[in-house]
Structure prediction request, 407 residues.
Amino acid sequence: MQTEDRILIVGAGPTGLAAALSLGLRGIPVTLLEAEPALTHDLRAGSYHPPTVEMLTALGIGDALHAKGIKVPHWQIRDRLEGVVADFDLGLLADVTPYPYRLHLEQHRLTPLLLDRITEAAPSVEVRFSAPVSEVAQDADGVTLTLESGETLRGAFVIGCDGARSVVRRATGVAFEGFTWPDRFLVASTTYDLGALGFTGAGYVADPELWAAIFHVPDQGPPGLWRLAYAIQPEETDEDALAPARIQGNLHKLLEHSGANPPGGVFELKYASIYRVHQRVAQNFAAGRLILAGDAAHLNNPLGGMGLNGSVHDAVNIADKLAHIMLDGADHEPLLDLYDRQRRPINVKAVQAMSIRNKRLLEERDPDIRRKHLQDLRDTVADPARARAYLLDSSMINSVRDAAAIT
Prediction:
């Protein structure tokens, strides 16, 4: 049985790997446990805002990220019928970040970079695959994890980065408050070059019947893929929604006013999948020595690219606090309380509220409200001061600043 001189982390997604790397670079012993036999292949996320790029660069993977990723200095909001409504230039933030752009790289290409960096530079981190955790317990001196194999591990704290069905969150007993959207999201990736039609690497198409989020991702390398995510209605079965003719029809409808003309009238598709979308936040992000981060702590719809980014922000934040505890002997209770006060309200305010607003803006059916929303966007992008303020929020720079201001 291990002693209480190490941190236990459950879940080897981006959150768990980033937290393990941040702790390991300081020489803190970490055991990272992943239920799956290898890193998972998640197609959903892959857009990194400027502060996230800063954090990942500080962890030592900035060059690798940029070598594999796609820089997106502009992002758009379009109306399906009218075309571009607003084109936001992240260059307006060049005075506050060295990375005034979004960087696109699929989540399943980020995780190997983090794991490689751990192997290269953090020898105090042990990563174990095929190690599902069945029970989590804590006492005054530490935490005990029981694996499905029956093995027990002992540590000072555990960080639950184990997703929506988190075993660590279940052990805390805290509520996971929120709701599940009735519609599901279908993600289809095509090789058709939407950049040639004037689409920027990130954009959103508003329409009361068929709206979408559109992103350019690297895939295996140039020219990459264009990923389109749109909602399918509750009454439509997965089988019907994934039918090739159905996907082709939706892509044609989404892009018909943009001049898209795929060879033979068919968009070449590489991936298509469906997933449910949740908006939930844990009642507390820390309970005693049990800590929640990433999807174990919060879930949101992908409009705005905030879920993965917020998860990395969680990881860096809690790693800093645990380093003070483990290396400097700081009292853990006030620091874990501070983590909760910094990360939970910011998630509710900046991630949940904004992602819900983004979805409702895109799908708005009332013509008067819709017209007003779109005009507000036009007015915002036309005024550099308003556009800059909008970008400080949407790029999550303000959320990081606001969290840091909580003491």
Q: What stands out?
A: Residues 7-71+104-179+279-362 form a domain with the FAD/NAD(P)-binding domain fold (CATH 3.50.50.60). Residues 4 and 155 are 4 Å apart (CA to CA).
